[in-house]
Amino acid sequence: MAGHCTSVGPAATYAGAMAAETAETFDPATETAAGVGVLAARARTASLTLVGLSRGDKDAALHAMADALEAATDTIVAANAKDVERGRADGMADGLVDRLTLDAERVAACATALRDIAALPDPVGEVVRGSTLANGLQIRQVRVPMGVVGIIYEARPNVTVDAAGLGLKSGNAVILRGGSAAEETNRALVAVMRGALEKQGLPADAIGLLEGGREAVRDLLTARGLVDLIIPRGGAGLIQTVVTESTVPVIETGVGNVHVYIDAAADLDTALAITVNAKTHRPSVCNAAESLLVHESVAAEFLPRVLTALADSGVRLHTDPAAGSAADAAGIPHDDATDEDWDTEYLALEMAVGVVPDLDAALAHIREHSSGHTEAIVTQDRAAARRFTTEVDAAAVMVNASTRFTDGGEFGFGAEIGISTQKLHARGPMALPELTTTKWIVEGDGQVR
Amino acid sequence: MAGHCTSVGPAATYAGAMAAETAETFDPATETAAGVGVLAARARTASLTLVGLSRGDKDAALHAMADALEAATDTIVAANAKDVERGRADGMADGLVDRLTLDAERVAACATALRDIAALPDPVGEVVRGSTLANGLQIRQVRVPMGVVGIIYEARPNVTVDAAGLGLKSGNAVILRGGSAAEETNRALVAVMRGALEKQGLPADAIGLLEGGREAVRDLLTARGLVDLIIPRGGAGLIQTVVTESTVPVIETGVGNVHVYIDAAADLDTALAITVNAKTHRPSVCNAAESLLVHESVAAEFLPRVLTALADSGVRLHTDPAAGSAADAAGIPHDDATDEDWDTEYLALEMAVGVVPDLDAALAHIREHSSGHTEAIVTQDRAAARRFTTEVDAAAVMVNASTRFTDGGEFGFGAEIGISTQKLHARGPMALPELTTTKWIVEGDGQVR
Description:
Two copies of one chain form a homodimer. Chain A has 449 residues and is an alpha/beta fold. Helices cover 42% and strands 19% of the residues of chain A. Chain A has 16 helices and 16 strands. In chain A, the strands form four sheets. A seven-stranded parallel beta sheet of chain A has the order 10-9-11-8-7-12-13, with helices on both faces. A four-stranded parallel beta sheet of chain A has the order 5-4-3-6, sandwiched between helices. In chain A, strand 9, helix 14 (321-330) and strand 10 form a beta-alpha-beta unit. The longest helix of chain A is centred in the N-terminal third of the chain and has 17 residues, at 55-71. The radius of gyration of chain A is 24 Å and the shape is globular. Chain A starts with 20 loop residues before the first helix and ends with a strand. Chains A and B meet through strand 2, helix 12, helix 16, strand 13 and strand 16 of A and strand 2, helix 12, helix 16, strand 13 and strand 16 of B. Strand 16 of chain A pairs parallel with strand 13 of chain B.
């Protein structure tokens, strides 16, 4: 996943370096303590410049931002250390502290992410469709920036850099609202990136940082007309809050309660490989499988194999009675699946396992419990595959492939903002084009009706 | 605009006919008095059938619905007469009564609209993009129905038919909520169309009618998870209510405060023709022009001509001081434009007229007052046209063409749901594809990560 600087990139080679002077001239008190109204007005003004920028200008700015981040590594790491110290003092969990922490290598990874974004095609200006009408009017639908995009996320400093870079490349001014636990870090990162923009002759207000308490977030969510789009990036709680409270349009990135269904006509070696991969390859992400449904006609043969393999991989199993019997027979530890299990996105080495009498039952189960992210069938039966792909209502439907492939990087998009589980505007992996809207340009020589 | 049965279609040749028996078996008390929860659950079940229908099945159903409407003309007209009578008794304005009224010719026009929808391509199943990944996975992004779509509109019976037809063609189950002033009419229309679906072996619940007071509407607007999309069709007040109160995703169709800017390098004959056409061709619609901005270097020559032509067409003029002086010199009556005038969508033979010193001022004025629908420049200057099309933030930007061309029919879409002035999902004229979402189908032979 290029564009996500937490993902594995080239090892950081640049570390120390002096604090960038740009960071020193930045006064958070005056630049980021502004309310949403002021930030949005500044962002709107900046967006008037961004809308007309060439790809060359934007890519040069992205490289300048990357260079400035690396040059300011010491300042950034020092600011981050304050956040980390406060987090530890407040009893922040180790996992969250790890996500919050920046060292020289991670700063370099953030810079790399910006350079990766620079290497991607510019979505702005792409002609989506067009024609010449009978009356000679030439019409074309062209991708243009959204304008001002608000991004609300948790205490993950890499998202600050990522969102700023994706915003700039797509011609949007961004208002960033990161978790308050990363306050010092975000100030430092934004100061450096704003300084780099100014040095490039671009408006610093293309990147705004919203501070303040919950009230500031509420102001952002209701800044209809000032902000064109809000993207929440984070856990289910954050997303739910944004979706229900926002009057500004929201792109929802979502939860993955992902199923793998092993059909009567499945190749069982394939089924085993896909199930284990979908569950264990990276259990903490949204495209990891959470439930396994097995057709009863292959259950006797398949369940002992798959339950053993899963258990050997350290997966805790939550079984329905039929799967539980198979587990008992094979001497594999398991819990009885509760109603709640079928709706749980474990994001961990746990899996609910059940036996279904037929494809209809599998489809009904998935309809009831799916979060609309990714669903998979393993089958050699074309009719079953066709029904599954037609009837399952999800962003991605897999036939004989691991659910782990629902990913902007895997799909070849280069960058990924998130995976949309909603149906409006974008569904599935979202990349730069999803940060744009379109405009119809109609050119004539005096046509009237 | 095919798909809008109020628009001009073939003259109705079929009038009388007996009430269709299907209408008589429909009991509104049990079928439409259901709450949103029940209606949505039924619609969801119906949508499971709709998602897999072939185009042939859907087109046959649309023709059956059209035939049934014509066969039930007397029943429909009689039901409508009750609504019209109640409307008149309640003091409904003549224009609204006219929009509410159905006669045999208008029923036939509704039937024609359904047949026109049948003639359009099926958006469902269209492959938007796709590729084969390096690992052999075949991925394709395919258009699929949204699922359950709520449509909220005013007392215009033709929208009931139109929305049902567009919903069916796009594979969606619809929940219709028309203005209560058309209650009897909508019951009759929905009963006939549901009956026709059943006769075709399709689920009647593909078309649901939501009755009840404001509370029912509020329930619909907050039926997140039950309803996939809500489309308001109507005036600014209705749309504003839906947009601010809905937690279900909304596609906003909007207000048009449309400007025509006459540049320094305009051909003035072209400018005259476009201005008069944009203002007077059909002043009541959203793509009609409301404000005229004239570059000062051509004002002395152009204003007398255009103000005379507009006044001759019955347009009431609201002028800034410079345009006012020109009107006075030509002896043309006019009012001084108030601040409010520049933000008013007159939807009538009125126009605000002002003089601007340059293109920058025109762009700034439009930025401040545009509703983001359609904006036009008249110019022979390529650089001015390029700046205007790049910098103006609107669904459609015209160069040397009347603003009246922003229309699904004119663009060749065949049907039009409305014109979106929002930026998410759809912008500009919306047709059948905009009633769909997409799904990624990924086919492999056992690929894992």
